[in-house]
Structures are given as structure tokens and as C-alpha cells.
Task: structure prediction
Amino acid sequence: MIALLLATALVAQGQGRESLGVFDSWGAFRDAAPARCYAIGQPVRGGAGAFASIANWPRSQARNQVHVRLSRARDPRAKVTLAIGERRFELIAGASDAWAPDARTDRAIVAAIRSSRSMSVESVARGGGAFADVYALKGAATAIDAAAMGCARR
Result:
């Protein structure tokens, strides 16, 4: 996992992306255009291509926006639920992506991430079959802080 994040960081630097650090299974990055900083992690259990990110967009003054790329395309009728400890958050979802419905929920999710060890994103795949992408949260809080500091320095 760490090797994959480091490899991503090296490739991304040629694309205007700066690595702000790798913290256990989470990384923090800053993009030049569009200007944004974000923490990102991949699931420890789930399909390829999935990730969870928490982004800061300085131009729009948006902070800690939660975005999840699902490991599978979801059934259009299925809900997407983010579970962290005892907390459950229903997300707004597209075919393969999901977001918190508002800034208040973003803040609640980030607070839950800071005090938990794991989280899962659950839904039903297109064609049926429930799935869950499971994330370890060790390093997530540090990556979130590094991303926030990365955009504060701009």
C-alpha cells in the first residue's frame, strides 16, 4: 500500500502534483491546477480503483470535503452508506462515486475518522450483490492535517 502511494506521488509530481507526505496507508497531496490539497487512502479490502479522499479547495474556501470512489458500479436504486464505528452516514452517489450531502456531514465524517480505526463504504453492485470497501484509518488524521496545512501555505 505504501509503495503504491509513493509510486503515485512520483508519477503525479510530473503532473503538477506535490506529495505532502505518506502516513501509514494514507497520503497527502497538493495539486497546482485546480488548486486543491487532499488526503487519500485505498481500501484494505475491496476492489481495485477504489479510494477515499478528504479535500480542501482554497479558491472556493471549501474544507474537508469527503469523496469516495467505489470499487464497483452501484445499482442506481441502491444507497451508499459510510460506516465509521457506530456512526452511519448516507452519501449522495453517482454510478461509481459518492460524497457527503453537505458541509456539516463532511465535518462529522472527518471527526469520526479522527477517532476510529476503520471505516467501510457499503452499497449494492449493479446487477446485484452487496459489497463493502474497508479502509484502515491509521495515518488518516495526519494526512488530513497535512493536506489542510498544504493549502494554508498557498
The chain has three helices and ten strands. The domain at 2-152 is CATH 2.60.40.1880 (Immunoglobulin-like). Strands lie at 17-23, 26-31, 36-41, 51-57, 62-69, 80-84, 87-93, 97-99, 118-124, 130-136. Confidence is low (pLDDT under 50) at residues 1-14.
